[in-house]
User: Fold this.
Amino acid sequence: MNAIPGANQYPSCHGGLENLDQEFDYEITEIEGAVPGDLRGTFFRNGPGRQRIGETAYGHWFDGDGMISAFTFDDGRVHFKNRYVRTEKYLAETAAQAICYRGFGTQIPGGLGKNFLKMPANPANTSIVHHGGHLLALNEGGRPWALNPENLETLGEFSYDGGLKPGQVFSAHGKIHQRTGDYINFGAGVSGFGLKGPKPCLNLYRINAAGRLVQNKQLPLSAFPFCHDFALSDRYAIFFLGSIVFGNMLPVVLGTRTISDQINFDTSIGMRVLVLDLDDFSLVRTFETAPGAIIHFGNAFESGDEVVVDGMFQDNFEANDTLKDVFNPEGRFGGGYYFRYHMNLNDGSLRAEKVVETESEFPTINPSYAGSRHRYTYTACSIDNGADSFFNGIAKVDFDGHAETITLPPGYYGSEPVFAPSLTRESEDDGYVLEVIYNGFDHLSELQIHRAQSLNDCVCKLRLRHHLPHQFHGLFSPTVF
Assistant:
């Protein structure tokens, strides 16, 4: 058991980073409470399923191999299954029981000769989307990987029938536009080469509701961004290019350093906000604001001349030190703070306000309200309860900043809360909040189901036979696979 320094009675979060090498497929029978009869569909999650291969730990949390888990709800019964994405990296390293590929923060053992001109692999470990008939595992370091939603088997790397050109990557945080059903995504890229070297850009993608890539446009930039997510309103895509920046990437190409080594938070660089017209991805307006970074966004919508954007603001990137050494018992996985930005497209003014004081991350909403005025956002929280090495609470935040917050018992750790609508869908919060919890005392995980209208009402706990490693992002589909 990993104990927290100064609080030895409580286990830390680090046991939740140990491998789950086995793949399961079973009906969950250990249930406290009752599975809601008006909850039907499949809850998918993606994240690193292993942080070690053989006896060697990966050099960064971002490098663990993607493992999909699925909880299927149907007539009061719940089925669980998990399966690794069979990327080339996963297959080769599983066979060798050794690191064979570079990563965001991982080098191949053996020095320069093993890493020279080797690009980082795509572990397909960050997020997941179900759109246009495709279930895709996503990581911004490469193309999507297609999965069979019924059994989670890997179908292969996915390019939208060649719509993604060679070298184009696809971010983990695309968003489905509610009015059109289009899926909007992006990836950092190169638009050409000049006297100063490669010319950076954002590649912008539109996939229609039928699953066909119909728009692929480049937006030139002045520098390579660390751009993990963006915001989407009804008419605009909004990109915050922040103070987390890449340094000289030549050592990365030469194999002497990792991307993680060359990334830093530069307090002399303010955030630049790009507002793009969704019809043609043209630049509508640029805003400048104080130094900072937003890793994950909540909702965005238009109000008169303003675009309103919710995001989790950070004024440093100290978390990267923890992510590079995930088994260090003194490491703490922190978050940002919930901010709201009001950007006036008419006069160019911008104002920002902190919505709640609690340290928060992983904002989610009822997806039916994406791009329009919403009332509720759900976040993972870090709360000082003597055991806050990882997210240990959930908040339901209304638009005015009033928050209903629940704190897990010390030694229990949560994840991204995901909203699942009830079959009736009578109001924005008519449904449930799904939260995977790691129990550090018993090294086991459970899925908790909280009534969204009152988070304190935990209607059901579904206990797994094993732990589920801390994962990144998920979604709820109303389809029973």
